[in-house]
Amino acid sequence: MTAVIDRGRFDAVIFDMDGVITDTARVHMAAWKSLFDDFLRGRADRSGESFRPFTEQDYQRYVDGKLRSDGVRSFLASRGIELDEGSVDDPPEAGTVHGLGNAKNAYFLKLLASQGASSFPHAVALVRSLQKAGVATAVISASRNAEAVLASAGVLDLFPVRVDGVVAAELGLPGKPDPAVFLEAARRLGVPPERAVVVEDAQAGVEAGRAGGFGLVIGVDRGGEGEGLRARGAHLVVSDLSQVQLIDKRHRHDDE
C-alpha cells in the first residue's frame, strides 16, 4: 500500500525514532524481555507459581513507545502485579516501578554498546526528500537515550527539532498515548497539528497522534502489527517508508 502526503495539506512530518528512523525496537524488546523475565522468574521461584515469560505481544501491547515507568506499570498490571512506585533514582535491584525502569535502562545501554544502532535507509531518504521540498521535520522519542541512539545510528544531525525523554522530563510532559510530545514538536516547528503528519510504529504512538488532532497518522508495521495500529487510529499503514510518497496536488490539473 502507498501512503500519500499532500504538500498542499501538510507543512510538517513528525517521526517517532525507535522502529521508524532507527532499528532499535529490537534492542528495546530484548532489554525489556531480559528485565521482565528475570523479575517474573524470581517471583515464580518465591511463590511456587508457574513462570510465564514476557513475549513480543506483551511488548507491542503494553510497553512499546511508552515512558519506562509507564511501560513497567502497564505490563505488570496485565499480570495483576502492583509494586511501590519508589523514586526516580532507585537502584535497579530496588524492586520498585522506578527501580525496574532503571534496570531496563541498564540492559538497554549494555545492548546498545555491544550491538550499536542502525537507521532505516528508506526512512532517512524520506526525511531528506521532505526537507528538500520545504516540509518541516522533527523526531520524538520517549527515551532519554535518544541522542546516543541517533548518534550510534549516524543520524544525529538529521532532524532540526527533537523532543525526547530528556525534554519531556524537563517540561513535565506525560508519555504516550498522551499526545504531549507530538504537540510540543509541532509547536517547535510552528505548525498546527491539523497541518502535520505523525509517523509511528507503536500502538500507543498512533493513539497519541489521533488524540492530538494531527491531520494524518501513518502507522509503520514492521512486525505484523498492522491491525493493532489501525485499531488505535492509524489513517494509513505501511510496511516500509519506501511506500510513502510526497505529492503536491496544488500543481496538478487532473480530475483527482
Describe this structure in words.
There is one protein chain. The protein is α/β, with parallel strands linked by helices and 256 residues long. The protein is 44% helix and 13% strand. The chain has ten helices and eight strands. Strand 5 (196-200), helix 9 (203-211) and strand 6 form a beta-alpha-beta unit. Helix 1 packs across helix 4 (97-115), helix 2 (56-63) packs across helix 3 and helix 3 (68-78) packs across helix 4. The protein is elongated. The two termini are 18 Å apart.
Structural class: alpha/beta
Q: Could you give the distance between the termini?
A: 18 Å
Order of SSEs, N→C?
EEHHHHHEHEHHEHEHEE
Helicity level: 40-55%
Spatial sequence of strands, sheet with the most strands: 4-3-2-5-6-7
Largest sheet: 6 strands, parallel
How much of the sequence is in beta strands?
Answer: 5-15%
Number of helical segments with 4 or more residues = 10
Mean pLDDT: 94
Low-confidence stretches: none
Shape: elongated
Output the radius of gyration. Answer: 19 Å
Overall number of strands: 8
Quickly describe the structure.
This protein has helices at residues 25-47, 56-63, 68-78, 97-115, 121-132, 146-152, 165-171, 180-189, 203-211, 226-231; strands at residues 3-6, 12-16, 136-140, 161-163, 196-200, 216-220, 236-238, 244-247. It is an alpha/beta fold and 256 residues long. The radius of gyration is 19 Å and the shape is elongated.
